[in-house]
Amino acid sequence: MTTTVGARTMRALAKTRPEPGAELIERQVPTPGHGEVLLRMVAASICGTDYHLYAWDTWASEILKPPIVLGHELAGVVAATGSGVGRVKEGDLVGVESHIVDWTCAQCRAGDMHLCRNLRVIGAHVDGGFAEYVVIPETNAIESNGLDPAVVALQEPMGNAVHAAFVEPIEDRTVAITGCGPIGLCSVGIARAAGASLVVATDTEPYRLQLAREMGADLALDARDPETVGRVIEATGGDGVDVVLEMSGAGTALNQALQFITRGGRISLLGIFPEPVAIDLSDLVIQRGIRLFGIYGRRIYDSWERTQALLRSGRFDPTPILTHRFDLADWERGFELIASRHAGKVVLIP
User: Fold this and answer.
1) Which residues contact 146 (CB under 8 A, 6 or more apart)?
2) Marked catalytic residue, from 3, 4, 16, 49
């Protein structure tokens, strides 16, 4: 099958029906409109969100209305441009900010575009990049600055970790990351690169704990071990950690974090919890002066600038996170690995 811009059809991995599963289909190559660019996809990584949409849980059924092409962690080469496009040009390799915002609501006008009231997400509300081509707004194209395509795609989830980490300074702080999926693993590397004095990682999967060690964790602990809280407190001289980056979305992890964080500490909450979490606000939060920050997406475009600065500095090495690469035709193997939790970031190559 030809994959030139003039081709009538392309491969695309789509959610075609409101039920578990996905389907590799053929559809027409889209045409960019005003202010839009057509990307020839080079790399697209699978996110936990993609797996939720694939599995079709309750959350997914409320977010996505089929048919939609999946995929929002993207790197592509500009293949064509619509009218009014002036910043990027054909041949440019770009990353993709996955959130399409209206630029007019109160949040956008205040500079909080990631919290746009009319937010649409590529790969959930509009067609995404698990395809040979995708159309995006030019405003969502982020220059690659010479990075490897798989790393260009990784910037989208890494930006979430950057946002969570740098809500407040972490240099010379003790930092714990709960949950060592790809974003948690990015958080480990970010904390190390930013000069944290101690980096602790917790998870329940030995494979992921080993990746956390490779990313620079001083301690990588099994969250199921009843000694974990005590070991964290001991490692911090009895004080507890200054900062927790909660990446798991597990209620048990949050309650554990509240036990080993120091008085006056900060918790960034990025993991999405599948159900309400019961916590003792009076004893564990209010009377201990704990600051809770809800983290959603990336700050546009500040998080992207910080992410690229870390990658260019050489202090952050994403290599251990990028564990698997498959052709788009082998997408099922990629999703199986995500489900097994025996993978870091799985990259599809259209």
Assistant:
1) none
2) 49
What end-to-end distance do the CA atoms of the chain give, in Å?
Answer: 12
- Cβ-proximal residues to 167 (8 Å cutoff; 6+ apart), any chain: 266, 268, 293, 295
Residues 71, 273, 268: CA angle, nearest 5 degrees: 90
* pLDDT tens digit sequence for 29-49: 999 999 999 999 999 999 999
Greater confidence (348 vs 4) lies with: 348
Q: What is the pLDDT of residues 162-175, one digit of tens each?
A: 999 999 999 999 99
Domain 9-157+299-349 has CATH 3.20.20.80: no
**Phi and psi torsions of 303, nearest 5°:** -65, -35
Q: Helix, strand, or coil here: 278?
A: coil
Is the confidence at residue 255, as pLDDT, over 60?
Answer: yes
* Confidence at 1, pLDDT banded by 50, 70, 90: very low
Q: Are 53 and 69 in contact (CB under 8 A)?
A: no
Backbone angles phi, psi at 22, to 5 degrees: -155, 175
Residue 49 appears among annotated catalytic residues? yes
pLDDT at 2 over 50: no
Pick the CATH number of 168-294 from 3.40.50.10680, 3.40.50.720, 3.40.50.150, 3.90.550.10: 3.40.50.720
58 is catalytic: no
- Is residue 171 within 8 A of residue 194, CB to CB? The reply is yes
**Can you read off the two tokens belonging to residue 251?**
């209620």
Q: What is the mean pLDDT of the chain?
A: 96
Compute how many other C-beta atoms are within 10 angstroms of the C-beta atom of residue 195.
Answer: 12
The catalytic residue among 52, 72, 99, 114 is 52
pLDDT score of 4: 43
What is the residue extent of each domain of the chain?
9-157+299-349, 168-294
- Whole-angstrom CA distances from 333 to 101, 131, 330 are 33, 16, 6
